[in-house]
Design brief:
Layout: E1 9-14, H1 18-22, H2 25-34, E2 39-45, E3 60-64, H3 73-89, E4 94-97, H4 102-110, E5 115-119, E6 134-136, H5 144-153, H6 170-182, E7 191-195, H7 207-219, E8 223-226, H8 232-243, E9 251-253, H9 260-269, E10 272-276, H10 279-286, E11 291-295, H11 300-303, E12 311-314, H12 323-327, H13 334-337, H14 341-362
Parallel strand pairs: 1-2, 1-4, 2-3, 4-5, 5-6, 7-8, 7-10, 8-9, 10-11, 11-12
Helix pairs in contact: 2-5, 6-9, 7-8, 7-14
Length: 363
């Protein structure tokens, strides 16, 4: 760490999706503990900023408007140049590129920072690796929290606390409170949050299977809250799942009706979260709601819910790639389809029993 002198202004770049951004939190804590007086900024894609908003480890969130990519060439060039100029004008002393993409590499260089940190990789345009002053070695088998954190740890910036925090504003908490009051959910009720969709539909379970789990929960007197993104394909999937539910009297449909913060506030009030590999799964885990996550072709070791008290279900069929499922036109990957509702229900029973035992112990 002694090699980094007069570091007062740091930029962390993560131009990825919502869950990816959330799992960078320990990096900010390591930087804050190493450089306690520094200004620390996060640069993220539009639509992902809410998972970092309110975090006291971060002084500022800079948002890159992804819609610029779909504009005309002239407008795109003007806006890209303006954004680069803004980053340059901020006089950053250090950049930490957690993205590994070409845009992030250019932003790191253009920033003018004396110290530019990234992972050592060969992808992207020729000579890209030379845009950085410090390159860390990456272990792709590790959980993404550790992959992010170990980049800065290799250069002496560290912390003992690898917690992934998510901060809820009062307005989001009030939203969740209103939902619970509106539907007469009380403290004695068992409440389960189900988020059955993902931006990548190949990560999703069979609709009939998810509906069977919801039906079992309702038959066993649980209150079930279902959410999804408002995007067209995810909403279509969620609507189909809900159409297979036999009794809607104990079900609350919030599909497409929440912001990220509102969804998080709902998850925080629930006894259990059930879903696939998705951003809401990571959010629920960050809020210490016990998670049951169903994994298929995405890496369970790298993307499992972070923290204690969570469970994953995965069926490893020996596949090295998903090309066979893709070439066969299989909508639900065979590894996900191999997970049966009865297995999920058994795990739910175990998790809810643990919750009951904890409640009894606290009396």
């Amino acid at each position: 760490m002694n090699e980094f002198k007069d570091v007062k202004n740091i930029l962390v770049i993560k131009l990825r999706h919502i869950g990816d951004v959330l799992l960078t939190v320990p990096v900010f804590r390591a930087l804050r503990e190493t450089f306690p007086g520094a200004q620390i900024s996060a640069l993220v894609n539009s639509g992902t900023e809410d998972v970092l908003a309110g975090n006291p480890l971060i002084d500022e969130i800079i948002v890159f408007d992804r819609s610029v990519k779909s504009t005309s060439l002239l407008i795109k060039c003007i806006k890209e140049f303006s954004f680069l100029s803004m980053v340059r004008s901020r006089n950053f002393d250090m950049t930490v590129d957690l993205t590994s993409g070409d845009r992030a590499a250019i932003l790191s260089l253009v920033s003018g920072a004396r110290y530019r940190i990234a992972y050592n990789h060969d992808g992207g345009f020729a000579g890209k690796r030379y845009l950085y002053t410090h390159r860390a070695e990456k272990d792709g088998s590790q959980h993404m929290v550790l992959q992010n954190f170990n980049m800065v740890k290799q250069f002496g910036m560290t912390t003992e606390d690898l917690t992934v925090d998510f901060f809820l504003p009062n307005a989001a908490k009030e939203f969740a409170n209103d939902i619970f009051k509106k539907h007469s959910i009380n403290k004695a009720d068992t409440v389960v949050h189900i988020h059955p969709t993902s931006r990548w539909l190949f990560k999703c379970w069979r609709d009939e299977y998810m509906a069977q789990v919801i039906n079992w929960l309702i038959e066993n007197n649980a209150r079930v809250i279902v959410t999804s993104s408002p995007s067209g394909r995810e909403m279509e999937k969620a609507v189909n799942i809900l159409s297979l539910v036999k009794d809607n009297s104990k079900l609350i449909d919030l599909c497409g009706k929440t912001t990220i913060k509102q969804l998080a506030a709902v998850a925080a009030r629930c006894d259990l979260f059930i879903g696939v590999d998705s951003a809401p799964m990571h959010i629920a885990a960050a809020l210490n709601t016990p998670v049951i996550a169903l994994f298929g072709p995405s890496g369970e070791e790298q993307w499992r819910p972070w923290g204690e008290g969570h469970a994953t279900l995965i069926k490893k069929l020996g596949c090295k790639v998903c090309q066979k499922c893709e070439s066969d036109g299989v909508e639900v990957r065979r590894c996900l389809e191999a997970i049966k509702p009865a297995e999920v229900i058994r795990l739910i029973s175990t998790k809810l029993s643990e919750k009951t035992e904890r409640s009894d112990d606290s009396k």
